[in-house]
Structure formats: C-alpha cells, structure tokens
Design a protein that fits this description.
Strand content: 15-25%
Order of helices and strands: EEEEEEEEEHEEHEHEHEH
Structural class: alpha/beta
Strand order of the largest sheet: 10-11-9-12-13-14
Number of helices: 5
Helix content: 10-25%
Shape: rod-shaped
Radius of gyration: 30 Å
Distance between the termini: 22 Å
Low-confidence stretches: 185-194, 218-229
Number of strands: 14
CATH topology of the largest domain: Rossmann fold
CATH superfamily of the largest domain: P-loop containing nucleotide triphosphate hydrolases
CATH class of the largest domain: Alpha Beta
Mean pLDDT: 83
C-alpha cells in the first residue's frame, strides 16, 4: 500500500576559496616571483540512497542544509583545502524536485546511489596564474565561485509495513493517532473511512515502521461490495496485518455475546481468503480494542475464544498500546532477518 511522504528543505553548496596573492621571499632570491596558491573548491550537497532509512521523518526537523566552504589559497603555491561535502541520506525511491520550477531533478532508485544536488563552487586562482613576460609580479587573483542554493521538495512513495484491518468503528483511527504523529479524522459513524491515513511509528534509534489505517473492509468486499477490490488491492502488499476487533461492538445489547466478535473476525478473514488465500499466510496480530468500554468479565470471555496471543488494548487510555507496538516491531524485525 503506497502513500506519499513529503518534506521541503533548502540546500546550499560551499563557496570556493579565493586565490592567494603572494611572492617568494627566500634568501638569495631578491626578485622572487609570484607563488600564490589557488583556493579550495567548496563542498557539494549529495543525496545518498540508504536502505537503512525508511522515511523522510528525520529531515522534517531541519530545513536548511549547507556544505563547507573551501579554504583560501596560501603562499608557496599551496592550494586551500577543499570544503567537506554534505551527504544527506534518504530512503531508496526518494524523488528530489526543484520546488521553484516544480521540476524533477533525479530519483534515487538503488541502495548506495549518490546524486549531486548542488555542486560546490570552484576555488579562485592565485596570482601565479597571471604571470607573463611583461608582468612578472602580478597581484591579480580571482575569488572563489559562490555556492548554489536550491529549494527542494523530497517525495517518497511509502509502502506501509502494517495494515490495520477491522470493521468500521473498530478503533483504527484512534490507534494510529495514539502510536504515531498522524492525526486522522475520528468520529462515531457506522460507515467506513473513505481515505487512508498513514502514520510513522518511531522506535528510538532502532528505526521506524509505517502503519496505515486503510479503508474499512466489509462483508462481500471480495465481490466488490463497499470499497471492495480497491481495499483488497491496498492490503495486497502489506507485510503484517493488525486485525482490530472492537469489544464494545455489542455493548449496548442486553446480553452481548463474545462469540459474535469471533464471527465478525472470521468474516474479514474469509474475505481475505476469497480474494487471495496467500494473504492468510502473512503475520497477523489480533487486537481486542476499546477495553475501556466493557466490564472485565466480558474481556475475559472474549480472551477465551480468541487466539492465546491476542492482545487487549484501549487506544483511548493507552492500556496495552506499548506492548502492541513492541509486538509489531518484533514481528517486522523477524521478517527482515529471515
């Protein structure tokens, strides 16, 4: 399931150092000639595709990036040091646009690929370059070329690691707002979300994963009912399913039956099977949601009929949410190491 991750930033390459105006001053060389060195080139801004980077999230906290300037030339024909290049590591598949011209500059398609966005300025010439037969003591030099500033837009088509399954009102939007910075529209309505919501969940220095609150699946989707195949095409490329089952679905009934929850769970599983049986082989984490809205005895009754490793959470109070995030991360880590 692909989404767009986007960030805007400005990059500036380094200015070249100016050339030196210098003359030899050595013993027994009374008429020493020019020996001014050239300035060093400025550093370039380079984007590097890094398979260890999953999103553009880290770039959101810094909008201005600059490479080092080159050093000025020195006497005795010594060239100034070149400015250090600035490398910006981005996920594979990142597209870099000039946002002033709305023009695609390049796309980083393979791990380790390097593309120069802004070339550093050339260093200036020292006075030794201007010596002639008629001008043996030139003082002329040239300044270094200035760096180049670009205003860029970076765009990444993200593939969601985790897809949230569940009937409408299962708590998908609330959960994604709890575990990520996403702020989907949340309301009490009996119909499915029509637009996907995407969240990036940070796991400290270990990395991050992308979770998608995908449009709700309903009975008959395999035949095209509701969002039908549109939904099923979305989940087709999701690595892990998070199947949310609302404990509060029948709480208004006089005698709510936990078995009805299992029946609804099996309905969605059957829709996946009818669309593509291979989907049932993917890792699935069963989550009983909205535990804050039902009594403890009802939760225990539901636990007894669902898989033993099913988790119980309340996205509203936060109960069980961190344990769920750790389970998701462990599952994704295991998939990567296979």
């Amino acid at each position: 399931m692909r989404f767009i991750d986007e960030v805007e930033l400005s990059v500036t390459s380094g200015r070249g150092g100016r050339g030196s105006s210098s003359f030899r001053k050595e013993k027994y060389v009374p008429m020493g000639g020019p020996d001014g060195g050239d300035g060093g080139d400025g550093g370039s801004v380079i984007f590097v595709a890094d398979e260890g980077v999953g999103t553009l999230l880290d770039l959101r906290h810094r909008t201005q990036w600059a490479a080092e300037d080159g050093e000025h030339g020195q006497y005795r024909l010594r060239t100034g040091a070149r400015g250090k290049d600035l490398e910006i590591h981005v996920p594979v598949g990142t597209m870099v646009y000039d946002r002033t011209e709305d023009l695609l500059l390049f796309e980083l398609l393979t791990s380790g690929e390097r593309r120069v966005a802004s070339q550093g300025g050339k260093g200036g010439l020292g006075n030794t370059h201007f010596k002639t037969s008629t001008n043996r003591a030139p003082r002329q030099t040239t300044p270094g070329e200035p760096g180049r500033t670009l205003h860029l837009r970076l765009e990444l088509k993200l593939l969601a690691d985790v897809g949230l399954l569940g009937f409408p009102n299962a708590g998908k939007s609330t959960l994604i707002s709890r575990i990520s910075a996403a702020r989907p529209r949340i309301a009490d309505y009996p119909f499915t979300t029509l637009t996907p919501n995407l969240g990036v969940v940070q796991m400290g220095d270990s990395g991050s994963f992308v979770v998608a609150d995908i449009p709700g699946l309903i009975e008959g989707a395999a035949e095209g009912k509701g969002l039908g195949h549109q939904f099923l095409r979305h989940v087709d490329r999701t690595k892990v399913f998070l199947h949310l089952v609302s404990l509060a679905e029948d709480v208004s009934l006089e005698a709510p039956d936990p078995a009805a929850l299992l029946a609804r769970y099996n309905v969605l599983r059957d829709e996946l099977r009818r669309y593509d049986a291979d989907m049932l082989t993917r890792p699935e984490i069963v989550v009983l949601t909205q535990s804050d809205a039902v009594p403890p005895e009802y939760i225990e009754a539901a636990r007894a009929i669902f898989p033993a490793d099913a988790l119980v959470i309340s996205a509203v109070t936060g109960e069980g949410v961190q344990a769920l995030v750790r389970r998701i991360w462990a599952t994704l880590t295991d998939l990567r190491e296979r």
